[in-house]
Amino acid sequence: MKQLGIKNFSGKRIWIIGASSGIGAACAKAFIEKGAKVALSSRRVEPLQQLAATAAANQSLVIPVDVTKDNQINDAYQQILQAWGGIDLLLFVSGIYTPLRASNFDFKTAEQTIDANLLGPMRAVATVLPEMLKAHSGHIAIVGSVAGYSGLPKALAYGPSKAAIINFCETLYYDLLPEGISVHMISPGFVATEATAQNDFEMPALITADQAASEILSGIEQGEFDIHFPKRFSGFLKFLRILPYPLYFWIVRRFVKI
Ligand SMILES: NC(=O)c1ccc[n+]([C@@H]2O[C@H](COP(=O)([O-])OP(=O)(O)OC[C@H]3O[C@@H](n4cnc5c(N)ncnc54)[C@H](OP(=O)(O)O)[C@@H]3O)[C@@H](O)[C@H]2O)c1
User: Cβ distance 124 to 87 under 8 Å?
Assistant: First the structure.
């Protein structure tokens, strides 16, 4: 069974959570250019307002949200329902990354990462699902990461949060396909954004946020479940994860200076 895509974004109602910078902002820009209606959410309001200023009248909503707060997600969704009556696509992009190794493993940071990167998307999905299930239509797209495929150095909290996103999307897919709701699991490789600006190593196959947005829009258009990019990097990591552990660890140690 093939999932439905969104063939024409014009007039589609899209809630982008994590729209204030990086991949989310680039997606918002691309959706605005394609004539979609965008509800822009994140904690920082100013960048959302700047994006909204590039849209036509009535094409955008600015709704600040902290994804770690249940009530804020619910209130934001109620505002969207009042304005638009529903959404066609939830695009959850928001995420945080703090490098963590065993030598500096800090539980508070781990807790915040899981709260933002895993419980955040779960909160948003729990909020929008009842209406989508009633309507038997809609799209849920969540940005995970290739870092969720299998364990990588310096990602003691980020890696598990993204691995869980993969499982969450796979498990949602079983239930939502027969309901006419599409699930899009998005796994980027390295993308040049505020989040990766802190990296002190050369990032292989680094792409721009606009390139990432173009991959995401095209994957959703085509109804893809597994949207991963750039393929030269994500494909390699997909291959690594099927190797026996001794070989896997040996290759990762060779490629990553740890
Ligand atoms: N860049 C990469 O190489 C890469 C690779 C794989 C996966 N990813 C994933 O792609 C997504 C976007 O990352 P990015 O690189 O574009 O990073 P970014 O530029 O730092 O953007 C992160 C976004 O998440 C929002 N956010 C963070 N915490 C939030 C919270 N508690 N509530 C609401 N919004 C929150 C930020 O907005 P505010 O700060 O305004 O709230 C911002 O809009 C993340 O899920 C990341 O894990 C990135």
Answer: no
Determine the distance separating the centroid of ligand 1 and the alpha carbon of 48, expressed in angstroms: 14
The pLDDT assigned to 43 comes to 98
The answer to the question of residue 3 being in a domain is no
In a domain, 8, yes or no: no
Q: How far, in Å, is the centroid of ligand 1 from the Cα of 245?
A: 30
Q: Which atom of ligand 1 is nearest to the CA of 47?
A: 40
Question: What pLDDT, in 10s, does the model give residues 191-229?
Answer: 999 999 988 888 999 999 999 999 999 999 999 999 999
Question: Please, which residues bridge with residue 155 across strands?
Answer: 100
Nearest CA to ligand 1 atom 16: 22
Which residue range is the domain that position 217 belongs to? 13-255
Identify the CATH number of the domain in which residue 138 sits.
3.40.50.720
21 lines ligand 1 (CB under 6 A): yes
Residues in the chain where the model's pLDDT stays below 50: none
Distance 247 CA to ligand 1 centre (A): 32
> How many independent structural domains does the chain possess?
1
In the chain, which ranges are E strands?
A: 13-17, 37-41, 60-62, 89-92, 138-143, 181-188, 191-192, 207-208, 226-229
In a domain, 4, yes or no: no
